[in-house]
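Quick board copy: two proteins, each given as sequence then tokens.
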Amino acid sequence: MPTKIKWLWGLCCVFVFFGFIYVSMKTQIEEAGVKRAQERAARMKQSAASAERRQKKMFAAGRGVKDIRELIAMGKPAAAAELARKVLQKNPDNAQAYTWWGISLVKTNRLGEAIEKFRQALQLAPRRPRPLLYWGLTLSMQKKYKEAIEKYRAVIELDSENSNAYAYWGGALAGLREYRKAIDRLRKALDINPFNETAYGVLVDAYYHTGQFSKAWEAVFNARKRNVPLAKDSLERLRRAMPEPAP
């Protein structure tokens, strides 16, 4: 075979060899790309399905909490507590369900059990003020006013504009007969929310106990302007100390 033909044959073999390698590598790269795309699509599908399950679970939990609140508003705390128990069986990490379970227990005077539910709610959501607020209120109902004040103070640290926390704090101070300190907390509650019913009732009594009858009547008139009801016995006691002035 002539030398020239040998060189041409050798070059052809080289081209065929490298062509085969190129085609083989290209095929492998394309197959790998397809596989990665399939895996990525599978992960996205799995992630979307997981997100949908979480969303459905969250919706169901939210619906459950709403139903619990509605039962409490309807004056059915025992039914609300039972529903809360069922909601938490399905979603044990639902801090709101624990909170409203606690509130329903307060309504049925099961105060010790209620505090345990508020504690569980805070373990799941430490920075939510509502369970702290109702924990404090439950302690006040047990006449543990100093412990209650610590809860209200913690609520204010989380939510400085929480009118109810200031109102309940004032109520706890009144329970300790620290009426002047109570007045300061109650006025702060009304600065935030001029329609706070709890604050008005305690403020009238606090002014009465400190002999500030004119200011007590002023608080009464402010409550009336806002259609806030006041206890009849408080008004009668105030009238005996000082006749009702003209508004």
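And the next:
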Amino acid sequence: MRHNFTPKQQRQIRERSGDICEAGKFDTEEFYGMSRGQTCSMPAEEIDHITADALKRTRIQSIDEGLHVCKIHHKIKTASDRKKIAKATRLDEARVGIKKRKYVWPKRRFGT
């Protein structure tokens, strides 16, 4: 189940950022592919979960769990999060006994 920020929380995050991308602030440089101490100064457009919502699995407690970021940094983080989410899903499915079905190639018929 997806847990989104409430409109009130979104407003508070936007006010905190001043509509400037927060990528790199609050020790998040690694998530956004930035070097230590580097920040972004582009206009912020999207609200991003610091820890991917699919990995966290609990309700949002505060605005400290989100950042107001530009589209570029949101795409960068989402790309790396998708790999982590896929792995977590595979591990969850394996834990309950669901295995990925392996495709069996049909046998060729010769001379028919």
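Board note added afterward: Strands lie at 46-49, 66-69.
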